[in-house]
Amino acid sequence: MKITPIDISGHRFARRMRGYDPEEVRSFLNLVSGEFEKLVIETHAQKEELAQIRASIADYKERERILKETLLTAQKLAEDIKDEARKEARLILKEAEMKGTQLIDQAARKVTELEAVIQTLRTERDAFGLRVRSAVEQHLRILEMHRQEEEVEDRLRFMKKPASGKPQSGENG
Fold first, then answer.
1. pLDDT tens, 22-63?
2. Which residues does 173 contact at the CB level (< 8 Å), separation at least 6?
3. Which residues, other chains included, contact 167 with Cβ-Cβ below 8 Å and sequence gap of 6+?
4. Which residue stretches of the chain have pLDDT < 50?
């Protein structure tokens, strides 16, 4: 049974002989009723505060749950991004290695081609040098032959020249 302050202040005791002083009982009941009313009001206020606190706690728990979920989602997303970045980095590295290998292969082919061109040019230079040398030697031989011919002609002229003071036969005389 719930007792209210009105129940306390309105309660009447039966009278008996030599019983309690009714005025003192009434005064005490009024005092108890006032204190009880304060306690009821305080309890009611505490219940409202408790309800608000519980609502706040429930709100905070919901926010905490949402934050945890958000944090987990963010962590998962961060891991996914890291994994994707690692995959992309591996792919870029692989492509760079392939391009590097292609460039090295192209450079090696170019070097081989240039070496072949250099070898061809050397061969042509040597052949040209031989042709020039051969032409120079041939010209030298021709010059030598001309010199020798001139010497022979000079000798022949010398031999054909009459001696000084002697007429040659068949001349007037």
1. 777 788 888 888 888 888 899 999 999 999 999 999 999 999
2. 167
3. 173
4. 171, 173
Torsion sign, CA atoms 103, 107, 112, 113? positive
8, 29 contact by CB (below 8 A): yes
Extended strands (E) in the chain: none
The Cα 142–Cα 48 span in angstroms is 135
Residue 170 CA to its chain's centroid (Å): 116
| The pair of three-digit structure tokens given for residue 105, joined into one six-digit string | 């292969």
Q: Which two structure tokens, joined as six digits, stand for 107?
A: 């450079």
pLDDT of residue 164: 59
What's 169's DSSP letter? T
CB 41 within 8 A of CB 53: no
Q: How many Å is the maximal CA-CA distance in the chain?
A: 225
Residue written as token pair 């192209």: 106
Give the helix/strand (H/E) hosting 97.
Answer: helix 22-160
- Count Cα neighbours of 115 within 13 Å in the Cβ-side half-sphere: 6
Distance, in Å, from the CA atom of 6 to the CA atom of 96, rounded to the nearest integer, reads 92
